[in-house]
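User: Working on a comparison across species. This one is Gas vesicle protein from Desemzia incerta. Can you predict its structure so I can line it up against the others?
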Amino acid sequence: MTKVGSFLKGALIGAAIGLLYAPKSGKELRAELMQKKEDARDRAMDYTNMAKEKGSDLQQVAKDTSDDIKVTLKAGFEDVKGQVQETAEQVKSDASTVVDTAKETAEEVKGKAEEGKAEADQTAEVEKP
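Assistant: Here's the predicted structure for Gas vesicle protein from Desemzia incerta:
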């Protein structure tokens, strides 16, 4: 049981015991008991309304926080997505450069090989007996 519930229960029991031992007529005692009951009910309703308000406030705070987190995560995702796209484009560009360089090097090697073959053929013809 909550502190408020325990307090209300204790207050009602204490009031009832106090009224039973008070020197009053039955009519006065019943009227006073009814008044105490109404007062306790009103206080209980006040606590209920405060609890509802606090619950509503907490719900709104949770919703706002959730919305903030969603916005932050979305922005972070967009940043990462942009960085990944940028990196992918750079890798593609670098790969293209490597392919072009490899082709150029292959052409140079082929040219040098042809020059070497031509020199070897000339040397072979000169040295023929």
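For your comparison, note: DSSP finds two helices and no strands in the chain.

User: Helpful, thanks.
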